[in-house]
Amino acid sequence: MAQSGFVHIVTRTSPTSHATTAVILAAGKGTRMNSEMPKVMHEALGKPLVEWVVDAVTDAGVARVILVVGHQEEVVRAHFKGRSNIEFVRQSPQLGTGHAVDQARPLLQNVDRASELLVLCGDGPLITPTTIGTLLNAHRTTKAAATLATSVIPDATGYGRIDRDSKGEFRAIVEQKDCTPAQLLNREINPSYYCFELGALLDTLAHVDNRNAAGEYYITDVFHILKKAGRTVHVVDAVPAEEVLSVNTPEQLAEVSNLLRSRIATRQPSNHSTERNS
């Protein structure tokens, strides 16, 4: 990333893998959770938040999962110790989502640069394999360098907004802290469901800077950098509003647990047996 002090090596080695890889961000402390436990390890309906995300990508057919860990990383590592498809990289210090993804670079050097890389957040347990499949199919169909799944929700507070031009074409993702008053009225948001062409992502991360209100390196900046460079950036409205809620507070954790409980209940077959006539 620009001026980050990190060395970035772009390799073009012979491909060793064509399978989709998922990078899941799981390094945060979650200060508003009022707990020393890593935010992603708080349980919703008896399962850590990040495990819901891991299971969703696995069910969608993703064979390799990389977890970016940080705060109390040993707790996350211990929980997934028996999962052979999961690898770990450490983010320390934590300098933003772009910086977090960049920590996986050493594990991706021998992967085909044309392969797909999913990037998701570990605190969004409502994601489904169906939505992941829609995102992947859109990315493959359009042959995009980067694909972003968006959602339109009633209350967009706290989410990055999708900035479009006068023709309705994607222009950028604007984090809430950087939004103008007009942009804050926009209800089309970024729920952080991304798919990239691996080579395009690795090359572009080297040009991401931290000139923003938070002073962080945002993965979201990759999209407008690629767009300005003439690469295809595809936006698909693929995320139902009921999948958007991520967890930042105990109240949101309780709400997510209730939503998951309702979702599971609607999928359960009735317990009432039907009598058979003899």
General description of the model:
This protein has 278 residues and is of the alpha/beta class. It has a single domain (21-251), classed as Spore Coat Polysaccharide Biosynthesis Protein SpsA, Chain A. Helix content is 29%, strand content 21%. It has nine helices and eleven strands. It has helices at 49-59, 73-79, 97-102, 105-108, 129-142, 181-184, 198-205, 221-228, 250-267, and strands at 21-26, 43-44, 47-48, 64-69, 86-90, 116-121, 146-152, 160-164, 170-174, 188-197, 233-237. Strands 1, 4, 5, 6, 7, 8, 9, 10 and 11 form a nine-stranded mixed β-sheet that branches. A two-stranded antiparallel ribbon has the order 2-3. A hairpin with a 5-residue loop joins strand 8 and strand 9 (170-174). Residues 3-17 and 272-278 have low confidence and may be disordered.
How would the blueprint of this fold be written?
Elements: E1 21-26, E2 43-44, E3 47-48, H1 49-59, E4 64-69, H2 73-79, E5 86-90, H3 97-102, H4 105-108, E6 116-121, H5 129-142, E7 146-152, E8 160-164, E9 170-174, H6 181-184, E10 188-197, H7 198-205, H8 221-228, E11 233-237, H9 250-267
List keywords for this structure.
nine-stranded mixed sheet, disordered C terminus, 278 residues, two-stranded antiparallel sheet, disordered N terminus, 9 helices, alpha/beta, 21% strand
Helix percent reads: 25-40%
**Measured on Cα atoms, how large is the radius of gyration?**
19 Å
The number of helical runs is 9
Poorly predicted runs are 3-17, 272-278
Task: Give the tally of structural domains.
Answer: 1
Beta-strand residue fraction: 15-25%
Order of helices and strands: EEEHEHEHHEHEEEHEHHEH
Shape: globular
CATH architecture: Alpha-Beta Complex
Q: Mean pLDDT, rounded to whole units?
A: 90
Overall SS class: alpha/beta
What fold name stands as the CATH topology?
Spore Coat Polysaccharide Biosynthesis Protein SpsA, Chain A
β-strand number: 11
Q: State the major sheet.
A: 9 strands, mixed
